[in-house]
Design goal:
By secondary structure, the protein is mostly helical. It contains 7 helices and 3 strands; from the N terminus they run H-E-H-H-E-E-H-H-H-H. It has a domain of 105 residues: Orthogonal Bundle (Arc Repressor Mutant, subunit A). Strand 2 and strand 3 form a beta hairpin. The radius of gyration is 19 Å and the shape is elongated.
Length: 153
């Protein structure tokens, strides 16, 4: 039984993530995948181009001929789809140890936090964890408190 590196839909997420950073043609994407995942995943034209075609049909990427190659770029709909799946991207990054998001946001940091603690959900005692989370939130707030902001506690 062959074991696939990417779970269902993850290759599409990876391609969208890469294209959100800059437009690329298929072989550039394959090169980037090889760089990111090393020997754990070997991209091939037989997997990358059908995935790009599917993303194009969905309107998430668009291809434009440039010389003899098609340069793919993410569409606004693709950027929205990627943003809507921030939790899935975080889980993929956690599972593979590869950073896909070009720019970290608060949403992606929280998604990674959730992905990391998700497997412990049934084991965690809320009464023990709640004060830890409150202290972390208070520390973050203290670093970014706006002038004239009242202490809401």
């Amino acid at each position: 039984m062959s074991r696939r590196f990417f779970k269902h839909g993850e290759l599409h997420l990876v391609l969208l993530s890469l294209l959100s950073q800059r437009p690329m043609h298929g072989y550039q994407l394959m090169s980037e995948l090889s760089r990111l995942f090393g020997s754990r995943y070997r991209p091939s034209p037989g997997s990358i181009y059908p995935a790009l075609e599917a993303l194009e049909v969905e309107g998430l990427v668009e291809g434009e001929m440039e010389e003899s190659r098609t340069i793919f770029s993410i569409t606004p709909a693709g950027a929205e789809a990627l943003a809507a799946r921030v939790d899935d991207v975080a889980a993929l990054e956690l599972r593979t140890g590869v950073r896909l998001v070009g720019v970290e946001t608060l949403e992606s940091a929280i998604a990674k936090f959730k992905a990391r603690l998700g497997p412990l959900a049934g084991l965690i005692d809320f009464a023990t964890v709640a004060p830890v989370l409150d202290r972390a939130a208070a520390e973050i707030e203290s670093q970014y408190r706006l002038p004239n902001q009242e202490d809401s506690r």
